[in-house]
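Lecture 7 notes: from sequence to structure.

We start with a single chain of 585 residues. Read the sequence below before looking at the structure.
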Amino acid sequence: MILQILTLLGALGMFLFGMNMMSAGLQKAAGDRLRNFLSSMTSSPFKGVLTGLGITTVIQSSSATTVMVVSFVNAGLLTLIQAISVIMGANIGTTVTAWLVSWLGFKADISILAVPLMALGFVFSISKKDQRRNISELIVGFSLLFLGLSLMKESVPDLQKTPEVLSFIQGWQGYGFGSVIVFLIFGTLLTLVLQSSSATMALTLIMLNMGWIRFDMACAMVLGENIGTTITANIAAAVANTSAKRAALAHTVFNLFGVIWALIAFPLFLKLTGFITSTIFAVPNPASQGFVVEAITAADGTMVQSPSQTAALFGLSMLHTLFNTINTCILIWFIPAIEKLVCKIIKSNENQEKEPHRLMYINAGPIGTPELATEQAFKEIIHFATISHNGLQYAKQAMADSHPDEFEQIRTKLVKYEEIADRIELEIANFLNSVSAGDISEETSVKIKAMYKIIGELESLGDSGETISRIIARKNGHKRTFDPQTINNLEKMAATVENAYMQMIENLNAAHKGTLTGISNAYQAETQINTLRNYLRDTEIEGIENGSKNYQSSIYYMDLVSELEKMGDFIINISQDLEKAFVKK
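Now the structure, written as C-alpha cells:
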C-alpha cells in the first residue's frame, strides 16, 4: 500500500513536471512573440480577453500567463484595466487543459505514444538549432504529462478490494449542500498544495472516472480549484509594486465572484451543464438524478471507457468552461468597478515615490496609420524627457553631501530611474520599428530617425544620473567631504544644466506643435554650461596648486562637474536632432 501511494505521488510529480516542461518549451519556441502579443493586443477589454485566452491555450498554463501579466503590470507595460481583461481570458484558456485530459488522457489514452514521442524529442534535442531544442522540450513535456496521467490512473487504489482507503472522502458526500462546501474547500486546498489547477483537475477527473465521487461533488472541487489557482499570481506579486499586487487581487476577486454565483445557482448550473453536454456529445446527462459512473471491463480484463464515464468527464470539462466563460461575460462590463475595488483594498503608500510607467501615450494594439502613430511616439518622447528631468532632481540631492543613509536612498532612486530610462527607450524603439515597417513618407522617415537618436540621448541622461551616484559613493567610501563652497559650485552647475533641460523640453513641445523655428535657446544654454565648467575647473586646479584644496576630494568634484557638462552635451544633441528633422527649411 505504501509503495502504491508513493507511485501515485511520483506519477503526480511526473504530470506536474511534464506540464511545466511543456509550458516552458512552448514559451521558448514562441520567443518574444508571446510577450509582444500580450503587450500589444490589449487596447480594449474584449481584445484583452482574447489575448489571455489565446496565450493560455498555447502555453497550457493560466498560472504562467497570470504571472506574466503581473510582471508586465509591475514594469508598467500593462495598465491594471488591461491586466484584468487578460486574466479573464486566461481563465477561459486554462479550461482547454481539462478537455485535452478528458479526450486524450481517458478516451483516447495517448500515453501509448508517450515513449515513441520521447524518442522524437531526443532527436530534436541534439540539434544545433535552439528552436528545435525548444520543440524537443515541448515534446518531452507533452509525453511526460500524459505518461504521468496514465500512471496516476493505474496506481490509484482499487475501491472494490480496499474500500477503506478512500472511504473518508466518500463519506463527505452525505451532507447535502454542506458536502458541496466541503469539496469546494478540498479542491481549493489541493490546488494550493500542488500549485497547479491543471494537476488538481486531472486528479478530480480520475476520482470521477473511478466512481469515487459523484458528479456534483467533482463540480464543487472544480469551483474550489478556481479559488486555489489565484495563489500563484499573489505569490508572484508579493515582491512587486502596488499595481502588480492589485492585478493579482483582481484575479482573486474575479474567481471568488464566480464561485459565489455558481454556489447560489448550483442546482441550475449543474442542469445547464448536463443539458449542454448531453446535447452536444450525445451522451447521458451527467447531472440527471440517478446518474452513476460505471466502469466496463472487457473480456480480456482491461477497462473500457463506458458511456457514463465519458459523459461525466465531458460534463466536468464543460462545467469548467461554462463557469469561466459566463463569469467573464458578466464581469467584462465591470472591469472599471473591479479596478476601483482592488485600488480601495490595496492603497498606494503615500510615502513612496509615485511609480513612473513605461508608456503613457503609445496605445496598445496594432498600428493603424503609421503617419499618425508618430504623433503618439513623439508625445511619449516628451513624457520620457519629463521623467529624465525628475532623475536630475535626485542627482542634485545626491550632490548636496547629505547623510550617508539619505544618500543610499537617493542612489537607489537614481539606479531605478536609469533602469526606467532603459525600458522606456526600448519600448519606444520597438514602437518606432513597427511604424517604420509601414508605408511612410520621406518626411516621416526623417522624423523617425531623429526620434531614434533622441531616445538614445535621453537614455544616456539616465546613465549620467547613475554615474553621478557612483562618483559620490566612491567619495563617501574614502571618507571625503565637500566644503560649503564646493557644494555651492555644484548647485550652480546643476542649475545651469537644469536650465538647459527646460530649454530642451520647450523645444520638444514646440517641435510637437510644429512651431519650432530654431534652437538658439539651446545653444545659449550649452554655452553657459561650458563657460561655467571651464571656470569651476580652472578655479579648482588653482586651489590644488596653492594647497587650499584636498586633491582627492577635488578629483571627485571635477568628475561631477565633468559629468554634469556631459549631460549638457546630450541635451544639446537632442535639440540639434529636432532642428534637423522638425524645423521647416
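The first strand starts at residue 296 and ends at 297. Keep this in mind for problem set 3.
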